[in-house]
Write a structure and sequence with these properties.
This protein is an alpha/beta fold. It is 44% helix and 23% strand. Helix 4 runs parallel beside helix 5 and helix 8 (184-206) runs antiparallel to helix 9 (213-230).
């Protein structure tokens, strides 16, 4: 993968970018996403935020090699601290980290959110707590997809602030739009997860030391929901 050929995962993230967006790509790594989007003329400008020095330097290098220093500002900052009010950001992407990490970045950077920007999120697991945060902060989920790349399943969640919204526990777990669409990749992901849950429950049953009842109930409930979904 490079700025000319994005991974399938980042291509799908790119597909949800509003035309002419002013993008903040947080945890930008090599800045492949903002560079690819600018090269295509899909966005107006970008901020590439990185908290660690090595990926920050890599992002600077990619931007420099593509002659995009005027349009992409690479910033060493923690989370949304990379965003300044004068940037006029209209889209924020957070990709390739756990859902809880994305949630924490959004939560601790709340003051930097105008509420006008589209959030394009690609969590590696932990989607449920991320959706919970979106609901609690008045973000409606506009689009969701599951894709499979290199044997892994990835989810993309696109949201915008639209006033109070309520999702059920199952919708937070599976994704409200996924639950309606139930496409084959989505069902295959949950088929695999059901096998994992069942294995976990079996190993709990054989375990010598007691497993906390609450944990047992939680996994049993998840297994029940998935079984019902697949029925």
């Amino acid at each position: 993968m490079n700025e000319q050929t994005l991974s399938m995962r980042l291509e799908r993230v790119a597909a949800h970018m509003p035309a002419g967006a002013r993008l903040a790509d947080i945890g930008s790594d090599h800045a492949y996403l903002p560079v690819a989007l600018l090269r295509r003329g899909a966005i107006a400008m970008a901020v590439a935020g990185e908290v660690a020095l090595t990926p920050f330097r890599a992002a600077e290098r990619t931007v420099g090699e593509n002659g995009l220093e005027q349009q992409i500002s690479v910033r060493l900052a923690n989370g949304l601290a990379a965003i300044e009010p004068e940037d006029g950001i209209t889209a924020i992407s957070l990709c390739g980290m756990g859902g809880e990490t994305i949630r924490d970045i959004l939560d601790s950077g709340k003051a930097r959110l105008s509420g006008q920007e589209r959030l394009i999120l690609q969590p590696n697991g932990g989607e449920q707590p991320l959706r919970q945060w979106l609901m609690e902060n008045d973000y409606r989920i506009l689009c969701e997809e599951v894709l499979r790349e290199n044997r892994f399943y990835y989810e993309i969640i696109v949201a915008e602030r639209a006033g109070p919204v309520t999702y059920t526990a199952e919708e937070l777990y599976f994704g409200p739009l996924q639950l309606q669409a139930r496409n084959p990749i989505f069902l295959a992901k949950w088929q695999r997860l059901l096998c994992q849950k069942q294995k976990t429950l079996t190993s709990f049953a054989k375990a010598r030391q007691a497993v906390p009842e609450e944990k047992l109930q939680d996994i049993a409930r998840q297994a029940r929901w998935i079984t019902e979904l697949l029925a």
